[in-house]
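Next comes a single protein record:
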Amino acid sequence: MESYIFGNENYSDPLCLQFTNTLKWHASQSPVETLNAFTDFVSWAQKAGIAKKKDADQLTAWAEENPTQAERALRRLITLREAIYRIIVASINEKRAEDADLQEMNAALEKPTDGAGISRTGGGFAWEWKLDKSSPDWLAGAIALSTANLLVSDRLKRVGQCADEDGCGWLFLDTTKNHSRRWCDVKDCGNRDRQRRYQERIRAEK
């Protein structure tokens, strides 16, 4: 049994938002999947900091030995990701989240967890949840815990969605003082929007 502490999520995009962004162009008609195999998810989890190298090696070995189960685990993760995405987008748009999506998140939340407590951190205190790593579903549990932690916090009001007209759909935590962030990246979607508006002005002046 190991613990997951949420203290570091106060200063960066929460884990659950990072997970929703594994589907690129999420709000478009042609989204691009980056998790095409369970091992893709394991690699992402290691980069995101929830899976240590030891965890990643064990999960990769398990996936190689159990390909059918690994494929099913990946489908469950993707189903969870889309439920979380819809819940958060509904919140951004001040709409009611679907009961089915909340049930999906809660199902992931309860399976691999075994109690909670408060832990000291550099900035004060944070929730510490015990995760049962006997099943690969513990990673889904960590993501669901991150989602729950966000949904009941004041930070939920600071979650935004990229305003790109082509459907980027990227979710982020807006840490600007006046809540003015509109883009996933001003050099990417923000720059493309500036170029679009510039071309529209040129056409209008002709």
Observations:
- The mean pLDDT is 87.
- Residues 2-205 form a domain with the Jann2411-like fold fold (CATH 1.10.3300.10).
- The CA atoms of residues 37 and 155 lie 32 Å apart.
- The helical segments are 15-20, 38-48, 53-65, 67-92, 99-110, 138-151, 189-205.
